[in-house]
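can u do me a favor
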């Protein structure tokens, strides 16, 4: 039986990196802070909250995608896992990601 790879989980949270309150996005699952772009390693698949790690995930690179906008790559500071996540920006509601930080990340491939 095929398992679902995406679970909508659009709850707000307090960022573990910058401490700001992050509101729900309103149309999909928010998985990183729109202010500093950091995330937390909570998921095995998007939104499932099944990871036991819980480490902070540093935004290490961003790249433009013609269909999805910007894609941010995060690296877990505990286990080293890499995850790619779509940036949230534009007129779809919710708090958009900091576009200046995203653009800065496009030149920082580590």
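np, heres the sequence
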């Amino acid at each position: 039986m095929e398992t679902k790879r995406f679970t909508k989980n659009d709850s707000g949270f307090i960022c573990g990196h910058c401490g700001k309150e992050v509101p729900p996005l309103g149309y999909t699952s928010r998985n990183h802070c729109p202010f500093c772009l950091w995330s937390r390693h909570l998921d095995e698949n998007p939104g499932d909250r099944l990871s036991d790690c819980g480490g902070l995930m540093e935004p290490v690179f961003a790249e433009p995608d013609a269909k999805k906008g910007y894609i941010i790559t995060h690296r877990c500071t505990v286990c080293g896992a890499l995850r790619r996540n779509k940036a949230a920006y534009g007129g779809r509601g919710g708090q958009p990601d900091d576009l200046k930080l995203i653009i800065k990340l496009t030149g920082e491939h580590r």
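The mean pLDDT is 84. hope that helps!!
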